[in-house]
Amino acid sequence: MSDLKKRFGKSDWLHLGLKQLADRGAAGLTVEALCETAGRTRGSFYHHFADHGAFVAALMQSWKQQHTLDVADRTLAQEQAVRAQTLSSLANGLDHGLERAVRQFAQANPVAQAVVREVDDLRTGFVAGLYRQQGLDPALADDIARIEYAAFVGSQIVWPDMPAEDRMALDRRFAGLVARATGSTSET
Predict the structure, then answer these.
(1) Cα–Cα dist 181/187, whole Å
(2) Do residues 44 and 35 touch, judged by C-beta distance below 8 A?
(3) Which of 11, 51, 131, 177 would give a disulfide with 141, using CB separation of 3.0 to 4.6 Å?
(4) Are the C-beta atoms of residues 53 and 111 closer than 8 Å to each other?
(5) Alpha helix locations (H) across the chain?
(6) pTM recorded for the entire structure
(7) How many CB atoms lie within 10 A of CB 164?
(8) Under DSSP, is residue 25 helix (H, G, I), strand (E, B) or coil?
(9) Residue 134: which of 97, 179, 174, 68 has the closest Cα?
(10) What is the per-residue pLDDT across 125-176, written as a single tens digit (0 to 9) for each?
(11) How far apart, in whole angstroms, are the C-alpha atoms of residue 21 and residue 18?
């Protein structure tokens, strides 16, 4: 059976949309560009999405699920002692090009902007929760999580080609600084 004969489902459109966004930016998300790349008709697209806005909303929710909620679930599935290392490994293994593309897209798209804000809040809250689990004062945990997250996002822009191993080394150094500053013996 040829690829054109196979069913192209909603998840296929969303997967393609994330790839297009990472590779081509917002221009890759037009219905025309998506259909051309997929080798599908507009009817196939509209079979799964009421309109382009519904596609963008679903696309952003898919990104949130894969790049935030799934990462949190996989992290929490680990023993507390290794959660920070797990989170660092998973977060640094994500597609940072897609992360930058989503953030750029959110500059012009209010739906994407709202989801990015939600994701930023979820992520910083999650990291703060890991610090609180280690006994850090809640206000301090929140502050450190915001700084750490800002550094994580900023490093993707400043050093877009930095290998994941180097990003994880930065995470470890940051955790060491936090441990020394707070008098903690454990590092996130």
Answers:
(1) 11
(2) yes
(3) 131
(4) yes
(5) 10-24, 31-38, 42-48, 52-64, 70-76, 83-92, 96-106, 110-133, 138-158, 164-182
(6) 0.90
(7) 14
(8) helix
(9) 179
(10) 999 999 999 899 999 999 999 999 999 999 889 998 988 888 888 888 888 8
(11) 5
Total Cβ atoms within 10 A of residue 141:
23
Provide the residue type at 24 as one letter. Answer: R
Residue type, 169: A
Q: What is the pLDDT of residues 20-51, one digit of tens each?
A: 999 999 999 999 999 999 999 999 999 999 99
Among 78, 85, 187, smallest CA distance to 136 is for: 187
Residue type, 59: L
Token pair recorded at residue 46: 């509209």
Whether residue 106 contacts residue 116, with contact meaning beta carbons closer than 8 Å, is answered with: yes
Spatial distance between the Cα atoms of 150 and 81, rounded to a whole number of angstroms: 24
What does the domain layout of the chain look like in residue ranges?
Answer: 57-182
